Amino acid sequence: MKERLQELQETFYTEIPITYYLGVIVQDYNGNCLTLKAALEKNINHKDTAFAGSLNALVTLAGWGLLWLILKEQELKANIVIQDSRISYLKPVTTHFSAKCYLPESSQISHFVSILSKRGKARLELYLEVWEAGALAVAFQGRYVAVLKNTRIGE
Amino acid sequence: MKERLQELQETFYTEIPITYYLGVIVQDYNGNCLTLKAALEKNINHKDTAFAGSLNALVTLAGWGLLWLILKEQELKANIVIQDSRISYLKPVTTHFSAKCYLPESSQISHFVSILSKRGKARLELYLEVWEAGALAVAFQGRYVAVLKNTRIGE
């Protein structure tokens, strides 16, 4: 898994260069939850808290990264994009911050993989959080779409 | 207005340094719509389109910027934060991109200013768009909160 997380880190930096300036770090995947982190000083705003756009970028990437890990696990090659999202900024983030994306239930993943294999395209809803000092600071819900590479879409 | 837009540009770069790396440019305000732009190459992803996190950051900032202009116009000094937002990525953005934030109806602005003056805190819902080649590429809805500086909040 360590090598796979290293590959995800390199994928971010080479394929989405702004992630370098955001200071996005792939921190951990424990089989149930992917954690990305970023340094406050790279994403600070006028109130010495994390800029909302940076928080949104980190959670968007953590969802993308979890789906990337799921596809790797399934040995499926697909492009991943985000279709829509909602975010609530519940409290200011005043330190380095981490975005956590939990694996959906296995039945949801099976359904997603089945649809993707049959139709070449499938959607997955992911929920993400940023916590600080024991309190939920950011709640995010994103709908991602995977499209198999070299496949004609039938829908 | 030219000087005020220059001040907004400097506010972004000095108070939210990541906006420099995102290449955020305050392009225009015509009295009805604030336009911010950003270069594709600074925000590109693996599909040679704009990274969703960058699009979200630009629209988030354009809403913030419009509210900043409204407050300047009203000669009110307040901190502005975003409370929550929704975004739909409707089509890929393949060139330099602009976020447009239209002024709400004057009755909404009057209500917002009245509440802010009375209570020291008020919310405003803003709608933003990114268009490309005559088609809507990104639709965004954000709820912003302004809190008067040096005021005790009564709510």
CATH architecture of chain A: Roll
> What strand line-up does the widest sheet of chain A have?
1-2-4-5-6-3
CATH topology of chain A: Thiol Ester Dehydrase, Chain A
Q: Assess the beta-strand content of chain A as a share of residues.
A: 35-45%
The low-confidence runs of chain A, each spanning 5 or more residues with pLDDT under 50, are none
Distance between the termini of chain A: 34 Å
Using the CA coordinates, give the radius of gyration of chain A. Answer: 16 Å
Major sheet characteristics of chain A: 6 strands, antiparallel
Helix content of chain A: 25-40%
CATH class of chain A: Alpha Beta
Instruction: Give the overall pLDDT of chain A as a whole number.
Output: 94
Descriptive key words:
Thiol Ester Dehydrase, Chain A, globular, alpha+beta, six-stranded antiparallel β-sheet, 6 strands, 155 residues, homodimer
Topology:
The structure is a homodimer of 155-residue chains.
Chain A (H helix, E strand, L loop, with lengths): L1 H14 L2 H5 L2 E5 L3 E6 L13 H22 L4 E12 L7 E6 L3 H14 L1 E12 L2 E14 L7
Antiparallel strand pairs in A: 1-2, 2-4, 3-6, 4-5, 5-6
